[in-house]
Structures are given as structure tokens and as C-alpha cells.
Design a protein that fits this description.
By secondary structure, chain A is α+β, with helices and mostly antiparallel strands. Chain A contains 4 helices and 9 strands; from the N terminus they run βββαβββββααβα. Chain A has helices spanning 28-34, 81-84, 88-91, 116-127, and strands spanning 7-8, 13-18, 21-26, 37-41, 48-49, 54-60, 64-68, 73-78, 100-104. In chain A, the strands form 2 sheets. A 6-stranded antiparallel sheet of chain A has the order 1-2-3-9-8-5. Chain A has a 3-stranded antiparallel sheet with strand order 4-6-7, with no helix packed on it. In chain A, strand 2 (13-18) and strand 3 form a beta hairpin. Chain B is of the alpha/beta class. Chain B has 2 domains: 86-341, Aspartate Aminotransferase, domain 2, CATH 3.40.640.10; 344-470, Aspartate Aminotransferase, domain 1 (Alpha-Beta Complex). In chain B, 35% of the residues lie in helices and 11% in strands. Chain B is built from 14 helices and 13 strands. Chain B has helices at 52-65, 86-92, 95-98, 110-127, 139-156, 173-180, 198-204, 227-236, 329-365, 386-389, 395-404, 432-451, 453-457, 470-475, and strands at 131-133, 163-167, 184-188, 209-215, 240-244, 264-266, 287-289, 301-305, 308-312, 370-371, 381-384, 411-412, 421-424. In chain B, strand 4, helix 8 (227-236) and strand 5 form a beta-alpha-beta unit. Classes of the chains: A alpha+beta, B alpha/beta.
Chain lengths: 128, 485
């Protein structure tokens, strides 16, 4: 349920490192908690972000939630497909439902994030 | 009698030439060309044509599909959907109030100014604050006004500051009001009791924080028992304590925010003081302040000198006018009528019964519906769908099923700190009998969840419309009827 090749945050974002860049999205747990997603607010390409700064907001039939940038960086691409099909976040949160791609500023920040096994334990703790 | 036949649109019952009135024959010469300069709308072909009987029945049937507080229990948490006493409507409909012009000279509207001043004084007394403005048109408008007063003070001190702290159990409008006022919002997490964590607050409170916005009791219905200590921490760094007074129904006549060291709060006349809201509004969100913030209050301020009332616009530090004229005047009258009808003892009793009703509900449903926090609550309580989830039934399904029992559902999925929330605020309006009816329905729904979950996931079954497509409604809303070409 939580792919091994990703890092995770306590706010339920995932990040996939690809060289100097990284792709960011929300986890399967997050999309299930949110319910049907109806709108995804995307940042401008080129925007600089600190770690934990809101990079996007996701609106579901229940609520609006911020998506936080797991590490500092600059936005290099956004998933414009989400404008038409925000439900990709529900259908394929780790694939077609990616939200932004960033150029990582400081790779050492990745050390603070959780691995799949840690995140799984973290989520289990929340469910009880 | 409820008839579940679909009511057609008025356009669909239209037939050409039908009308609800027979005009007499024209007995004066017809004049042409008078309106030639006036742009006449041309895109309104096929305007509905119906008889008086048809139009009366159509709108009467529509009105019967409506659910209102005059019809039944309205348990929406955080909304204080209490009964609106009819005497308030009677008083507000008096010609001296409805026919007065907002620009009438002061000398001709002394009574009306006195009414406003009287309400200001009563609200100041109820809240323990020094001054009140009645201008803001609703709760969120009051929040924005309150934040502007805080900002004005910081600016006058030479430093507007950057941040506003908002707990995760605050009202949803708080962060947006702070944001609109130019502040960056920092969220404070609740502790295991569901209240503001003092340790967390100490960590984030510094000279860049303009204010803490606190809802008390908070959206979980829990009284912030550390409020005086919280106020001291905020004040020590020169910040202000803003209190969202939307939940004042739990406190009025018992405890006063002014004595909890609150610097500014807004009230919702349309919640605590019984004036209609939702579709029946408008709302009204007076703001009460301590002396330190009163120089910044919006103009005009109502003043009195030797029994003569006047509007003071000469206030150099004022944030200006936040609404045209003087606020929702007729709503102000209804609130005053309510306060004077109840009197001090009645106001206290109102809050006591509101808290008693909520706790009666809570005790009756405890164990059947999950309660995340076992901290005692005041005027509302927040259950979750955790137990029913085991049978695949969500808070949405429970709410939809309540419609089949002829009841309005509670507030859902809010506050966000409780997943699958069902937030119930019965208010003092409900009798023991009505509360029991709701409790029995909730118990029956829990049994249905175990025995026949499909009945719930496909609910409602006996309403005019069945389950609506929420996703489609949010993505592609049809907001008005459009003529098909």
C-alpha cells in the first residue's frame, strides 16, 4: 500500500527522488481520508518553497487541505492534468495523481522524512 | 401529507396565454415610443404563463419541501439553530422601524438610536467588555472587523506584526479572516483533551504574533479552561486575545469573556440572540472590545449627551466604516427584543438548558456513537462514525438516513480534528420529547448499520430526491435555470 521507493511526511505527502529533482503527491491514506477530490490548486512553475510550506491545496467534498512541500526546492513542473481530472488523486495517488515536480535545494532534508515501513506504523497509530 | 411526486419547474407547467390576472380594457389612448430610450431586455422569451391557482400551489408545494426550525429539530453543530420567537418579528415589523430612512436627521430618529445604544450596552454587559459596534453584517465580517482593530493598534504602535495563531479546533472562518487582514496564519495543535496546548502556545508566541484567535467553547464544545493563562502568555508578548463568540450560547449569563481577559470578540445575533439565519437571515456580527481597542472602532459610533443620541464620525483613529449605514438595523431590534423578553435570569437559563440538552444527548448516545474526547462538553458534542465504519457505514450515510426519519442531519466532517465527525448542537429550544425522538432515530440507525448497512448506504429513501451526486454538484454545479434554445 505504501511504495518502498518513496519518502513520506507526517502530513501524508510522498516524495519520489529522481536525480536532482523530485515528484510530490499525497498518499493513499490521505486520499481515502479526504474522500472524492473535486479541485486541486496548483502553484506557478518557478515558485521557491521552504520545507513545510504549502505547495498546493486539495479540495474534497468534505474539506480543503493544504499539501506541504516535504523539502525545500523550486517548482519545475505541475500536473496540469489535475485541472480537468482532480479525481486522479483518488484513482492513482502514486502515479497519474502526482501534484508537482521540484528541484531539490538540499538533499540532506530528505533524511528527516519517513520510509514506507515507518509511515505505515505512523498511520496505524493514527487509526487507533 | 407529503406527496413524493416530482414538482415540475414553473417553466414546465407554463402554457401560452394563461395568466393570473384579467386586465380591464384599455380606456385611455395608447402611447408609443415612451420607452424607446430605455434598454429593454430581449432574452426573456417564454416567460412562464400560469394561472393564480397554479402559481399558488407550485410555491406552496415548494415551501412544504423546506425544512426549517419552525418545523422540527435542527441539530447543526456550531450554528446554534434555535427557535426564532415570533414576538421579535412583530416588533421589527413596526412601521417606526421599517419605514425610517437611514439618512433621516438624528432629531427624528432618537428612539431608533436609543435602541441601538441600549443593545450595545446590554451586549457589553453580557460579555464583560467596554464598547460595542453593531455594524458588522455577519459573524465572519465581525471577525474581520475585530482583526482590523487589532492591526490598527499594532500599526499605531509602529509595528503591524506578521502572524496570527489559530488552534486546529477553531471555527473555519478564523484563518480566512486573519488572512484577509494581511496576516499569515500559524496553526496550533490541540492536546489530548481537545483544547489549546499551553506548551505549544509558549513555543510559538513571540513579538511577531499579532493575536491568538480562540473559539471558546471551541468547536468540540469544550471550554478552554486555561483561557486566563493563555491570555497572559499572549499579552506578555504584546499580542491580543481574539475570541470567536459564535458559541456564546454556552456561556451567556454565566461567564463573561471580558473576565477571561479577552480583548476583542464578535457575537452572532443570529445564533445566540435568536434572530433568523440560514435562508432566513440576514445575520449580524457585533464586535465587543476592551478600552484599549475602542479608539479604532468603525464610524459612526453612537454617542449620548444629556439624553440626546447622535452619530459620531469624528474619530481620527477609527478603521473607518465597515458597512453602509449602521448595520442590520431590523436584526438589531429582534436581538434586543429577545434579550429584553428573557431578562438576566432568562439569559442564564437559556445557556444552562442548552448545555443540559447537549449533555443529555451525549450521555444517551455515548457508547453507541464514538466520542474521540472524553473531556466534558458544554452546548454541543462531536461524535464520529468510527463504530459504524466497521459495517461500511459513514457519517454521510448516517446523515442521509436521518432524512428518512424526518430529521435534519447534524453538521458533518467538521471539526477536522475528528475524522468522520457528527457535530450536534441541540440548543435550549428542544424539549425532552424532541430530544428523545432524535436519540431513538440515532439508535435505530446504529442497529440498521449492523443489520442492513445497504439500507444506509443507499439512503435517503422517502425524500423528494434521493442521494445527490456531491462530486458532480461541486465540479459542475447548475446554478440557475437556463432556457434551452
Amino acid at each position: 500500500m505504501y511504495p518502498e521507493n518513496l519518502f513520506y511526511t507526517k502530513d501524508h505527502e510522498w516524495i519520489k527522488v529522481e536525480g536532482e529533482e523530485a515528484v510530490i503527491g499525497i498518499t493513499d491514506f490521505a486520499q481515502k481520508q479526504l474522500g472524492d477530490i473535486i479541485y486541486v490548486d496548483l502553484p506557478a512553475v518557478g515558485k521557491s518553497l521552504e520545507a513545510h510550506q504549502a505547495v498546493s491545496s486539495v479540495e474534497s467534498v468534505k474539506s480543503v487541505s493544504d499539501v506541504y512541500c516535504p523539502v525545500s526546492g523550486e517548482v519545475t513542473a505541475v500536473n496540469s492534468e489535475l485541472a480537468q481530472n482532480p479525481d486522479l488523486l483518488n484513482k492513482d495517488p502514486y502515479g497519474q495523481g502526482w501534484i508537482v515536480r521540484i528541484k531539490i535545494k538540499d538533499k540532506s532534508e530528505l533524511n528527516k522524512l519517513m520510509k514506507a515501513s515507518d509511515y505505515e506504523k505512523y498511520v496505524e497509530g493514527l487509526e487507533h | 401529507m407529503i406527496n413524493l411526486v416530482r414538482e415540475p419547474l414553473i417553466f414546465e407547467i407554463s402554457s401560452p396565454g394563461k395568466r393570473a390576472i384579467n386586465w380591464p380594457e384599455l380606456d385611455v389612448p395608447e402611447t408609443k415610443g415612451l420607452l424607446s430610450e430605455v434598454p429593454i431586455r430581449e432574452d426573456l422569451e417564454d416567460f412562464p404563463e400560469v394561472s393564480e391557482t397554479e402559481i399558488t400551489r407550485h410555491f406552496t408545494r415548494l415551501s412544504q419541501m423546506n425544512y426549517c426550525v419552525d418545523f422540527g429539530f435542527y441539530p447543526l453543530g456550531s450554528c446554534t439553530m434555535k427557535y426564532n420567537p415570533k414576538i421579535n418579528e412583530k416588533v421589527a415589523a413596526m412601521p417606526g422601524f421599517t419605514l425610517v430612512h437611514p439618512l433621516a436627521p438624528e432629531s427624528l430618529v432618537q428612539g431608533n438610536l436609543r435602541i441601538m445604544k441600549t443593545l450595545e450596552k446590554l451586549l457589553a454587559e453580557i460579555t464583560g467588555m467596554d464598547a460595542v459596534t453593531l455594524q458588522p453584517a455577519a459573524g465572519a465580517h465581525g471577525e474581520l472587523t475585530g482583526m482590523m482593530l487589532i492591526r490598527a493598534h499594532h500599526v499605531a504602535q509602529g509595528h503591524p506584526r506578521k502572524y496570527v495563531l489559530v488552534p486546529d479546533s477553531a471555527h473555519g472562518t478564523n484563518p480566512s479572516s486573519a488572512h484577509i487582514c494581511g496576516y499569515t496564519v500559524k496553526e496550533i495543535k490541540s492536546n489530548e483533551k481537545g483544547t489549546v496546548s499551553v506548551e505549544e502556545l509558549v513555543k510559538v508566541m513571540d513579538e511577531e504574533v499579532a493575536a491568538l484567535m480562540l473559539t471558546n467553547p471551541n468547536t468540540l464544545g469544550i471550554f478552554e479552561s486555561d483561557i486566563c493563562q493563555i491570555a497572559d502568555i499572549v499579552h506578555a508578548k504584546g499580542g491580543f486575545l481574539y475570541m470567536d463568540g459564535a458559541n456564546l450560547n454556552a456561556l451567556a449569563g454565566i461567564a463573561r469573556p471580558g473576565e477571561m481577559k479577552v480583548d476583542v470578540l464578535h457575537l452572532n445575533l443570529h445564533k445566540t440572540f435568536s434572530t433568523p439565519h440560514g435562508g432566513g437571515g440576514p445575520g449580524s456580527g457585533p464586535v465587543a472590545v476592551k478600552k484599549i481597542l475602542s479608539p479604532y472602532l468603525p464610524v459612526p459610533v453612537i454617542e449620548e449627551k444629556e439624553g440626546y443620541y447622535y452619530l459620531d464620525y469624528q474619530r481620527p483613529q477609527s478603521i473607518g466604516q465597515v458597512r453602509s449605514f449602521y448595520g442590520q438595523f431590523l436584526v438589531i431590534i429582534k436581538a434586543l427584543s429577545y434579550i429584553l423578553s428573557l431578562g438576566p435570569k432568562g439569559i442564564r437559563e437559556m445557556a444552562e438548558i442548552a448545555v443540559l440538552n447537549s449533555n443529555y444527548l451525549r450521555k444517551s448516545l455515548e457508547g453507541i456513537y464514538h466520542l474521540k474526547y472524553d473531556t466534558p462538553t458544554l452546548h454541543e458534542c462531536v461524535f464520529s462514525d468510527k463504530f459504524q465504519k466497521e459495517y461500511g457505514v459513514s457519517n454521510l450515510d448516517i446523515s442521509k438516513r436521518l432524512l428518512d426519519y424526518g430529521l435534519h442531519p447534524p453538521t458533518m466532517s467538521f471539526p477536522l480534528v475528528v475524522h468522520g465527525a457528527l457535530m450536534i448542537e441541540p440548543t435550549e429550544t428542544e424539549s425532552r420529547r424532541d430530544l428523545d425522538m432524535f436519540i431513538e432515530a440515532m439508535k435505530a440507525i446504529d442497529r440498521e448499520a449492523k443489520e442492513n448497512p445497504e439500507l444506509l448506504t443507499s439512503a435517503p429513501h422517502v425524500t423528494y430526491v434521493r442521494r445527490l451526486d456531491e462530486v458532480q454538484a461541486a465540479r459542475n454545479p447548475v446554478l440557475r435555470w437556463e432556457q434551452k434554445k
